[in-house]
Each structure stands twice: as structure tokens, then as C-alpha cells.
Design goal:
Layout lengths: L7 H9 L8 H18 L7 H7 E4 L2 H9 L2 H8 L7 H15 L2 E4 L2 E5 L2
């Protein structure tokens, strides 16, 4: 077995080279950093598989764009996340964060978010 250690920027470049994915530069760097942190946290090398990353994670402009795509309509979003009419934008955002974190991973970065597909 041959193992090659990749830098954050090398991982990011490989993700961006995937013609079937739609990563931003910031998103690809955030995902690469997240996988590096995961590897460090568990002290286990991670295998780089850009197809799996493309299939397992999606990038969105923000929490509300995720919610719009995932739920389809506001009433469904409110019933699933516990958002009510009295919630301000930050309360709504926190409830969407909690919804995602209860089901998968949320990576927030300047310019967007990445959510594991669940």
C-alpha cells in the first residue's frame, strides 16, 4: 500500500477539479480542513475519496438556502425544526443548525455552509 499525505490546498484543488461537483474555493478549503481535523481528533489517517465527498456533502450559501432546498416550503420547515412565528432570524438559524447537527454534520465557513447528506 502506498500512502500519500495531502495538504489542505492539495485536497481543495482535487475537490475543485471534480467536474461533477460544485464546490466553491472557500467550501473546498473548509471541507478539507474539516477532514484534517477529523483525522487529528481520532488519530486516524483518512482516505481521500472525492467522489464520496461529493456524494456525502453539499454546499449551500447559508442555513436558509439549505432549509429552502431541504424542506421545500416554510410550513414544513417550521414543523420539522420547531420554528415559530415569534422567532427572530438568529433563533431560526439556531434551530436549523440544531436540526442539521441532530442528523449529520454542519461545517460553517465565511461564505457558506457544508452539510452532510442525510
Amino acid at each position: 500500500m502506498i500512502v500519500q499525505t495531502l495538504s489542505t490546498y492539495e485536497i481543495s484543488d482535487l475537490l475543485l477539479a471534480d467536474e461533477n461537483a460544485n464546490w466553491s474555493r472557500s467550501g473546498s478549503l473548509a471541507l478539507a480542513e474539516w477532514f484534517e481535523e477529523l483525522s487529528d481528533e481520532f488519530n486516524t489517517p483518512q482516505e481521500f475519496d472525492r467522489v464520496a465527498m461529493r456524494c456525502d456533502f453539499s454546499e449551500y450559501e447559508n442555513l436558509f438556502s439549505f432549509a429552502q432546498e431541504y424542506f421545500g416550503d416554510v410550513d414544513h420547515m417550521r414543523s420539522e425544526t420547531g420554528i415559530d412565528a415569534n422567532d427572530d432570524d438568529e433563533s431560526e438559524a439556531e434551530k436549523i443548525r440544531d436540526f442539521i447537527r441532530d442528523r449529520g454534520y454542519l461545517i460553517e465557513f465565511t461564505g457558506g455552509i457544508i452539510v452532510s447528506n442525510f
